[in-house]
């Protein structure tokens, strides 16, 4: 026990608490599924989290020290958000049968397109990177060879997190009764903690810092709106 506590990914380090914060995402999905109605499900955010957490499972395996807690929490979140999407589809088909097929097709098409893009990128990654590095094209070749550059998961997993903030911005005026308190709390917390985590992993990841700054700010905005509506204005 003492060895684990003092280990590189033990509870005295950000390597432990950063990934643990992400359990909040999976936990909020499970909580909402168990206790909340499907009307609060944000289908775009749920679909985005499926892809985001899928990328972070790979990211958790690539960072040093390798982080099994991070991999497990994102695996759980893929399952939790997939279940939320299933609930949303069922609710949409029952409550709005006329418009449900188009809405479902939009979400499914976006997920499918992202999957194809990711698979295609994996196929061309090594030959394209080798070509750019061998060109000896100065800054371009240095970027291509950088361990946190665009040919590595260290770049794509953190930067895909921008999609979460973009979703928050698109929902800037979402009715507060359709906002999940647990989800916005989890997103805000993980953004704040991962701002610190970005400086203690190898390689140091500045893009991870800025994307989490955006996430904590945009999610905090919705969290403040929800708290104000449910706990201040109703008094």
From TrEMBL:
InterPro entries in the record: MPC
Cell compartment(s), UniProt: Mitochondrion inner membrane
Membrane-crossing residue ranges in chain numbering: 102-124
GO biological process: pyruvate import into mitochondria
Keyword ATP-binding among UniProt keywords: no
GO CC annotations, alphabetized: mitochondrial inner membrane
Superkingdom of source: Eukaryota
Membrane protein topology class: Multi-pass membrane protein
Alphabetically ordered keywords of this record: Membrane, Mitochondrion, Mitochondrion inner membrane, Transmembrane, Transmembrane helix, Transport
Any Pfam family matching the protein: MPC
Record keyword Nucleotide-binding present: no
Main location: mitochondrion
Membership in a protein family: Belongs to the mitochondrial pyruvate carrier (MPC) (TC 2.A.105) family.
Known role: Mediates the uptake of pyruvate into mitochondria.
Record's protein name: Mitochondrial pyruvate carrier
């Amino acid at each position: 026990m003492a060895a684990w506590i003092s280990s590189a990914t033990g509870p005295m380090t950000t390597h432990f608490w950063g990934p643990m914060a992400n359990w909040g995402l999976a936990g909020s999905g499970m909580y909402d599924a168990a206790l909340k109605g499907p009307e609060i499900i944000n289908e775009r955010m749920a679909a985005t989290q499926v892809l985001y957490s899928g990328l972070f499972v790979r990211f958790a395996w690539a960072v040093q020290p390798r982080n099994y807690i991070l991999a497990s929490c994102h695996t759980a979140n893929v399952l939790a958000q997939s279940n939320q999407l299933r609930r949303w589809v069922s609710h949409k088909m029952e409550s709005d049968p006329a418009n449900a097929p188009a809405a479902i097709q939009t979400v499914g098409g976006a997920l499918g397109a992202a999957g194809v893009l990711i698979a295609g990128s994996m196929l061309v990654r090594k030959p394209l990177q080798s070509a750019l590095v061998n060109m000896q094209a100065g800054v371009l070749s240095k970027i291509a060879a950088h361990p946190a550059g665009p040919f590595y998961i260290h770049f794509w997993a953190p930067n895909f997190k921008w999609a979460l903030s973009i979703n928050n911005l698109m929902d800037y005026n979402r009715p507060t009764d359709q906002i999940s308190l647990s989800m916005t709390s989890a997103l805000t917390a993980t953004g704040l903690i991962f701002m610190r985590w970005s400086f203690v992993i190898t390689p140091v990841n500045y893009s991870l810092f800025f994307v989490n700054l955006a996430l904590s700010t945009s999610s905090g905005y919705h969290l403040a709106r929800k708290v104000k509506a449910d706990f201040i204005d109703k008094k």
